[in-house]
Every structure is written in structure tokens, then in C-alpha cells.
Amino acid sequence: MAPELQRDLGLFATTAIAIGAMVGSGIFILPGIAYASAGSAVVLAYLIAGLLVIPAALSASEMATAMPEDGGSYVYVERGMGPLMGTIAGIGNWFMLSFKGALALIGGVPYLVYVAPDLASYILPIALGLALFFTLLNVVSTKSTGSLQFAIVGVMILAMGYFIVSGLPDVSGSQTSGSFDLASEGILAATGLVFVSYAGVIKVSAVAEEVKDPGKTIPRAMIGSLLFTTALYVLVVYVAIGVAPDLSTGGGFVPAAGEEVASIAYAADAVLGSVGSFIIVLAALLALASTANAGLLSASRFPFAMARDDLVPDAFEKLHDRFKTPALAVAITGGMMMFMIATLPIEQVAKFGSAFQILVFILVNLALVGFREGAIDDYNPEFVAPLYPWMQLVGMGGGLLVLTQMGTVPFAGAVAITIISIAWYVGYARPRTDREGAARTGARQNVSQRAVDRTRELFEAEREYDVLVAITESTSPDARRDMLRMATDMGRLRSTTVSVVEFVDIPHQLFAGDHARISTDEIPDWMPTSSKDSPSWFPDEYDINRPVRPSGGVGADTGHPSPATRIEYREVDSEDHKHAIVDLATYGDYDLIIAERNQADFHHRLFGSDTDWLIENTPCDVMLVEDNEFDGAEEIAVVANRGPFDPLKLLFADAVAEETGAQLNLLQAIPVDAPDSQRETVERYHEELISILTVPTRSTVIETDDETAGLARFVGDADLLVTGIDRTGLTARVLGRPGNRLIDSVDTTAVMVQTYDGRRQSLLQRLVMDHLFG
């Protein structure tokens, strides 16, 4: 059983953590830089950025009340989108929060130097000392961390409130002109820059397992802190712009340690004098310290939560025997922060983190969609995000828009961390986990339900189904009879016209017409002519007629009863039978072609074969029959190749079973390490199909890593195999066809089904089916 953390954080402490995670560099460092890009419109940039964060905050609030577990956005993305995306979110968040915490600790350089230039040479030891202090504090007690966070944020808010109230009367209208002008140049670039100021809003969910009454506390803390921080940013920046001549220069003071300026201290000095600027410097140092503290606290919970899911070693999950905190996760995070402080260019790396945080916001919104659409039984949030899914779509679209304004360098950092995360997942986590996300489960359920609906629709359809049985001179008499038998069986479930057409190849004729010649002189000896003295499978009270329509369709009244099946015969002379088959099927408006499977054709590769050409060019469904002395059936195996069963497979197998008295066996293979949810979905899907079918049916779900070998073991006892072609075109010729390999590995009559719609599936559709059911 996973160890439980103590629920020590109330509403005020939780809100303080959220505010502390946001208010730091966002207000004390970024305004001056953003002012250089957008001028006074930086005020509007902060407002727009705050609004764009609302969808992610609402989505995170809902998921946090359904899953009050440490890990925050990692947990939501992992549960909603699966362990791969969860690994990316978890490792990326851990790296970026560590980077931002380190940046916050040395981000006070301009403010310290502003009031005490002699301290510039001691900044690194001070930053390292603070990192060590916060690490030890987080190891000892989360409650102490929350209490300290509340105290720090309280002092900071009082100082900033003092600045706002004192500075508002002195705001210059000329300097704030255009503060809310959407048409201002650089507004989007500035929005992208200050967007990271709100990255901490969902970090409170990273400590959800330590929050009292999370169903109420988390949404209130998250939304309340976001609204408060947005208002604070807008007011502080508006006042700073209004009282300082040029916020981007900091009065001409640029510290040697970096490009950032003490812009808010400079503005405070213009309004409050030296005493006021000292108060703001103190508030800035406290705010940056609180950002580092909150960042360390939140970052350490990501490896802790990932260890619970077997995505990182179990040692990160272990709690300290005395303090009941994830000591190793905290220590590793603190050590990483100190390493970054001592060795890395933190400012640039923090910009990398900004891009990744926006991606995380997009993933959080997407994860909520996964949960809502995934129909997860135990997903019962106490708080429900309003305006679904429009709010989430706006959040994702807005995030993508902001990303386009951030340049290529931040993207490079995000891509690098993503690659590292994927490599870690493939090398370490994947062999240790068999879970999947709610989105994949829901998508599989939706695909299966649509397949059930299409199957029911096909079985209930009343439209006549026209079948073209295409035989050639090489088709054996036994195969001809079996193909006719299978075609007439379709009439047991729906009205069917069966046209048996023998395609005779003739030598090339120089002055021949463009079309094949059709003749109907005689009915061949191999073909039953009436129900008298004919096989048991032949339709009752029916004689074969010469065709009364040259190109398919419903035949005219011949004086016979109106059976479910009409049968007719003709002969077609042509120079190329495959083209003649396609032409006749096209002009005759047939629904299905039944032809003989030529085994040799399926082993042609790059240059294709006559069978390949026929499959790729027919305007209707195709069945290829591999006859192996078919003489009735006691069991018919129906195999699902790519995703759900095609309804035509089931209709055909059911029709043959009606005539032969056979039992159907629905066979579907899943990987050995498939999650339980995949097997459950497949089993429920089979149960619904069984309720539609008209004959006795059983279900067999096979767990195997060798699909062909696994299915062959169960197909071996069947009298008829119904499978799919499952690949067409160049892909089939290069990679082969799994259905073809299955037929070659068993000794039974087989039918390969290729529907017209299935042939038209895009590569993306096929990849999705492989991902959902493979």
C-alpha cells in the first residue's frame, strides 16, 4: 500500500503556495523586459496572459478534486493521456520548476545590488545557502513550508499594496496611454514573455494529497490565487509605468550580474523615496524566495508521484521515517537547484521552461477532455469546470498562439526535455507499466460502439445486396461451387441477387471493341440448375435463370416465386479478365465481388499482382476465397485484424452459419502486456456483437505477442476462417499482410474480406487503430 502524506494545508496556506509560485520574477524581473517589447501595453499583456490561463486552472481544479494526489499536472496528464505523456509532463515539470526555483534565488541580484552594491560578489554563496535552507525545511515539514509561505506572501502583498495605493495618485496619463490597446505593436510577444508569470497557478495541485478538504480548498485556492495575482500584476505594472519614465532601463542602472533591472524598485523610488524602495526590495527578495520555496516543494512531488506509478525508481516514493516527507525527492530536487545555480545560465534556461509550461497547460486541458470523453467509472470530481469543451479549446488554442511568439530557442529546450523524457520512458518505464490513459480507453470504447452500431445497421438493412461471383478458367469446379454456395448464403439474411460470371480470356484482337463481350448460351455442368436433386445448400424452390439485365440490378419478373436469393449466370469474353471484372462491377452497381484467392499473388512484392490491382480498383467490397474442400462447417472462426470486426465479416459468417448450422468464434488478439481496460473493452464489445448475431457465438480474446501464431492455434479447429486483407497498396507489398500469413499457417478454407470503405482508410486511421487495439 502506498504511504499516505499528512493533510496539513488549509485554504490560506494553499492559496499562499499558489500565489508564491506565481509572484516572483513575473512581477519583479519581467515587467522591465516586457516593457521594451510592447511599451505601456505590457499592462494588457499581463491581463491577456491571465485570461488565457483560466481554462487550465479550471481543468486542473476539476481533476484535482477527482484525484487529490501529489503530482498535480503530471497525475492528470498521465491518467488522462497515458504514461508516455505523463512521463513527459512529470520530468519536464520537475526540470522546469527546478530551473525556475534556481532562477528565483539568484533573480534577486538586481535588487540586492540596487541597495547594497558591495553584496554583488556574495550573491552565489547566498543563493546556494538559501537553496540548502529551503531543501532542509521541505524535508523536515510541509506544514512549516506552508506556514512560511503564508508569512512571506503576506509581507509581499502588504508591500505591493503600499506601492499601489501610494503610486496611483502620481500616475502620469501620458505614460500609461495605450496600456489597454490591443493593436499595440509587440503585444503578442509581450504576452508570450509574461505568460510564465502564471505558471505556478496549477502547482498547488502538486501537493493536493496534503490539502485539507481538497474538493473545496483546491478550486478556491487555484481560481482565487489566479484572479488575485492577475489583478496584482495589472495594478503594479500600471502604477510602475505611470510613475517611472522608462521602466525598461531601471533609471539607467544595469547590474553586472545580468540583463535584468530592478524595475519595480526604480519605480518605487520615484514615488516612495529611498525608504519605500527599500520596502519594495525587501518584498522582492521575499517574493523570489517564496517562488524558490514553492518551486522546490512542488518540483519534489513530481518524482514522488511518478514513483508510485513505476515511472521512476521506488526510492523516490519512500517517506522519511520521522518527518513523513519524500526526503529523497526533496533532496534530489534541492541538489539539482544548487547545481543549476552554480553552473548553468539560469536566465536562458528559464525561458526554455516557459515554453514547456505552456505545453503543460495545453496537455492539462487535453487531459480533461480525455477524462470527460473516456467514460471512466471512478472519475467523480467534486468541482466541475464550466463551459466544457469550449473553455478547454480556447485554452489550447491560446497556448498554441502564445507559443508561436516565443521564438525558436525556447522551443529547442522544450524539445530537448521531451526527447529526454521519451528516452527515459522507453528505456526504464515502459517495461514496468501496463496502464493507459483515459483518452485511449474512451477512444477505444467509442470506436467499438460505432462498430456495433454499424453492424446492427447492416444486419437490419432491407436494401438488396448484389453479389458478383467472378470465376475464371483456372478456378476449379470445387472452388466454383463453394463460391456460389457462400454467395447464396447471403440471401438467408437479406435479399440478394447472385450473378455468377465466368470470365474467359481471349487473344488480343486488333479491331476489337473497347468492351468485353457478354454471352449467356448455356449453364455449365458444375452449376446446380434447380433445387431438385441439388445440394442441401441450394435455395429451395428455385431455378437458375439466364440474366434479364445486362449490367446488374434487380432482375425482372420471371414467373418464379420471390425468394431471398436470385441467381443468374453469364459468360464474359475479354482480353484482360481483371479489367473486365472491375468494369462489370462498376456498370452493374454490384455491392460485393467474390473471387478466388490466388496464393501466389499474395507473395508478389514491389511490382504487385493481378489480385493487388483488383483489390485496389474495385468499386465495391471484395471477398477472396481460399478453397480447401469446404463441405459444411461446425465452427467458423472470425478474426478481427485491425481494430473492431468489420460488419461485413460478421454478416457473411453469420449467413454461412445459418446455412451450415455452425457456431461462430469471434477471435481477437491483444498484447500480453495490454492493460485490463483493453481486455474489458474488447470483451464488452464482443458481448454486444453476440446479441446482434443470429447464430450461437462465443468469444475468444487471445493475449499474445505473436498475433499470427496466437490466432493460428485457435483457428486450427475451425472449418472456415473469415479474416481481412488489412493492408493494401505499396504498404502491403512491402510489409506483407498479416491476414495472408494467418491463412498460409492454417489448413482450412478461408475467406479474406476487404471492404471498400476499409480500403480507403488513411494512414493516420490505420495507425490510430493499431494504437487503440494493437
TrEMBL record:
Domain UspA: 467-625
GO cellular component: plasma membrane
Bilayer topology annotation: Multi-pass membrane protein
Keyword Transmembrane helix listed: yes
Keyword Zinc: no
Compartments, record wording: Cell membrane
Protein name: Amino acid permease
Species annotation: Natronosalvus hydrolyticus
